[in-house]
Amino acid sequence: MDQSISKKIALLNQTTLDSLAEVNILKIIERFTETGLKILGANFGFAWWKNPEDDKYKLAYKSPNTPYEPKLPREHGGNFMAEKNKTPIFVEKTIKENYEKKYDVSPYMESYAIIPIIYKNYLYGNLVICFKKEHIFTDEDKELSASLGNTTAQTIIIHRFIEQEHKALKKAEMLKYTWKLLKEEKLKTEFIANATHELRTPLAIIKGNVDLATKGDHKKLKSTKSALRAIDHEIKHLVKIISDLTLMTSSNVWESNSKIVYKKVNLKSLVAHVAVRSKALAYKNKISIIAKNIPNIFIFGDKKYLEKMLFNLVKNSITYNKKNGYTKITVEETKDNFVTINITDNGIGISKKDLPRIFERFYRANKSRSSYARTGLGLAIVKWIAEIHGGEVFVKSIKNKGSVFSVSLPIEKIKEI
User: Fold this and answer.
1) Which of 81, 87, 90, 83 is nearest to 113 (CA)?
2) Class of 5-249 per CATH?
């Protein structure tokens, strides 16, 4: 029985959620192979895993009803074509003359699709989805196939990240640390729990959106593509979270500025962009964002990191503000060719007890700010970005009256260290 596109996407989405609990990558591939059979209405299938050590394929999974033993992919065959082109291959009619004798699949199937498990040009293998009778692949089938391959690869990335964090935690538990290191490891353990939550939340949002979409009309291809684009957007958001968490937990990045690319940055444009990005969150929290009369000042720095620093501060101000409060951004040139960016709010403020420690990695205040689930790294990142740009960050705050976060940066170009 045919399924609506929204139900197919929901099934693909649920597979992503379920796969995070699997013990290894081969089980993830098994789940997605079976899901591929269901959403494409196929009869059987199998999957090839590409070993990174020798760059050779091995059979990762085959469905129980597969009528033959799949042969290792031949050079220049369909699997290698899918790998080279980085897109699925669809064969609607198998012809015996097109295959070598030992690779002839015509007795077992009439049509098949080879779907690369790929993300950002990195290939993990291929899913092979087979039909006993001739199958005409629709545009919807092709969109779903591409999404199936990409989502499988992205889920493997997420699973590996979580697995690495758990392994690191187990290793840490076996070692004898000094009192200082033990204290930090305890904070890291709390961070891992929060990080896992951050990964699961977008996935839950995807599923919620799909459930809502099932109530609409998804018969048109335009709706299909729109739904798939929405899923793809959330998956990319997940990958971004992983990238940020990798940055935050890397021991080297906190002591190195080798990844910083210095270019001329217009602070007026940067503030305007961050203000626009923050509007949705501010509207939701009924917070006014004020960013007027920003001077046309240029500094030299990495625009990506400077935007992250400023956005973290504005987001922080909105999150810990009061209903109908405000977040004000001002920029002023100070003495000695420095510029100061101020983010002022009339929110809940920070207690005197917590104020000296808010820029520490993994630190989260225990009382006034603990009701907001965070990883405890946002302000530490702000401090790091300010310092590798030759500046500094400081804060003034009064409990229940508001806070002012200020970042001082040099206007002149920073010399390479």
Assistant:
1) 90
2) alpha beta
